[in-house]
Specification:
504 residues; Immunoglobulin-like; 8-stranded parallel beta sheet; 5-stranded antiparallel beta sheet; 30% helix; 21% strand; binds calcium ion
Length: 504
Amino acid sequence: MTRALLLLALLLLASGCHPRVSAPSGIYFVMVDRFANGDPKNDGDANPDDAQAFHGGDLQGVIEHLDWVQALGFDTIWLSPIFKMRTEKWHGYGAFHGYWTWDLSSLEPRFGDELLLAKLRRELDRRGMKLILDLVLNHVGPDAPVLTVHPDWFHERGGVTDWNDATQLVMNDVHGLPDLATEKPEVFDTLLSAARRWVELARPDGFRLDAVKHLPLTFWAQFNGSFEFMRLGELLDGDPGLVSRTWKEGRFSAMFDFPLGFAIADVFCRGESPAKLAAILTNDRRYPDPSQLVTLVDNHDLPRILSTCQGDLEKTKQALAFLFAMRGIPSLTWGTEVGLDGAKEPDNRKSMQFIEHPLRAHIQSLMARRAQSLALSEGAAVPVEVSAERVVIARIAPDGTTVNVKVEAGQVTVSDAARSNPALVTQWRTGAKTQRVQLTGRGSVVGSGGELGDWDRRKARPLPVTLELPVNGVFEFKRIIDGEWEAGPNRLLFVGDAPVEIAL
Ligand SMILES: [Ca+2]
Ligand SMILES: [Ca+2]
């Protein structure tokens, strides 16, 4: 036992506590090439003036800026893939993002070596910080040497032509990237051994798992079942039904909350009804543990939030205020705090600037408020007041301590509220208390939530229909009449304490 561990054990004994693996306070995403250049000797042909070229960022640069990340209030760093990768452009597109792996079992020399990775781990430990490594298991980069050595490790079915075809989604090449035949034991074992090697060398606190949609759930269940720590799935989809199903069947421990992220952009940047936020949160009971959802307003595959909000700093601030006041583990894309923008690739992947910016102090204060409030950091998120113009989400801590988060006219207000009955949280989490809602009229209805078909018109409910819906639940829906969606904004339903009959 090291001295540090011994000290920790004694402290825990003295305080009568049991050690527990704490969830990250916040995850800061670093695209390694775009963060900080700590070592010009490994730059190769880097050219910071070319948006598609490598810019020279590396692990040394990450080490040198851990204090920046920690000062912002984040205790966890997620690194874009650091493994040996294609470095040449491909059809004019840059390889700097790192998602075109060539060899998952060795480190990309432009980023550093294994000694430096070990140093990064020590520097994180010294600060009480965590590390998430990004694994691409679906494909390899174009022209990866393994294609010649093991041509039989790939599906070679050509590109995806029909994105609604479930077989194509997992078997065909996505964006032309060679698709790994993970059902072959030697392919699976190679991927698993590489992952295990990095666990030994870097002791990560979790994996961020890329392209979840493009690998079979049987693969994920087997891979994820091999690890105890955070397995964070990237399923880029706005359907909470799909995200929750994949989470359970794929044995992930966490998923990115794209459904909420898309709703935040719609509400704060595009002026849609705040009820949409409550409708998304109504799906929380479908997740194994909504507090483990990793929330976001953007990432490297999406437009930057500042661009989605058309450069409007105030709207961006409100979107972030909501993000950091919600349940889940908030994540931030590098440079959001200094106003990095960009609507499309590679514009949304600009290099970091370590400068002062009003968003930095804003995020710092939002993270500080969150850290000081058990309701904000760990509480459930229960809609308690909803109209098309205004929602109030109660954040209720396990002990009943409650903070209200109000969204009205694009503004977020957080205020202390009267203590809630903790039974409300249990009822909310399990959906145990329901209310009968009858909808009558012509046609059919489809909307948010599983009961209303998750906006999938093939699952529309013919009218009249009687539904058992969770109390406090919020549903958006529309009618389909004679095969046509009805015009106008979404209809809204807030499930209260009494049964209702609504004539449409
Ligand atoms: Ca460098
Ligand atoms: Ca695949």
